[in-house]
């Protein structure tokens, strides 16, 4: 008798959170394991500015951050765990002072959570892999999604695309 174990069944049997992550143009990461660290562990690997944003949900100043107007081609990774979150292909200049994206590179990597702080109803976005605070998503973005993922540069690391090599 042959037994086939699916990811969902594996997760139920082991209690380990697993997900298939498939980012276009890359090999799937299998399985995606949730990363958990204590605040002390995070402080050892993050700069103080990144710790404030990623772990304490701070917001960096607009227009004074690394990626708000970067136009280079490449991918943006979570500064906490390295997960691929956004691509320059979905980036646009929103004039908000923070990097803005129409959509994530792979939606499974972004977790959304209601955020009632600051006296308004907002939707916080977090890295699904490590739970780091990234920023917020708003319903005022350009087509085709109509969404604006407003992300703190301190939440991201940028990996430029390899230049095309001519033969």
Plain-language structure description:
- With 167 residues, the chain is an alpha+beta fold.
- The protein has a single domain, classed as Metal Binding Protein, Guanine Nucleotide Exchange Factor, Chain A, CATH 2.170.150.
- The strands form two sheets. The chain has a six-stranded antiparallel β-sheet with strand order 3-4-8-7-6-5, with no helix packed on it. A three-stranded antiparallel β-sheet has the order 2-1-9, with no helix packed on it.
- Strand 3 and strand 4 form a beta hairpin.
- The chain is globular, with a radius of gyration of 17 Å.
- The N and C termini lie far apart (53 Å).
- The N terminus is likely disordered.
Helix content: 10-25%
Proper CATH architecture = Beta Complex
Strands, count: 9
- What structural category do the secondary elements indicate? alpha+beta
* Unreliable sequence segments: 1-31
CATH superfamily: Peptide methionine sulfoxide reductase
Number of spatially distinct domains: 1
Oligomer: single chain
Radius of gyration: 17 Å
Profile the largest sheet: 6 strands, antiparallel
- What CATH calls the topology is Metal Binding Protein, Guanine Nucleotide Exchange Factor, Chain A
Number of helices: 3
| Shape field | globular
**Neighbour order of strands in the largest sheet:** 3-4-8-7-6-5
pLDDT averaged residue by residue:
85
What string gives the helices and strands in order?
Answer: HHHEEEEEEEEE
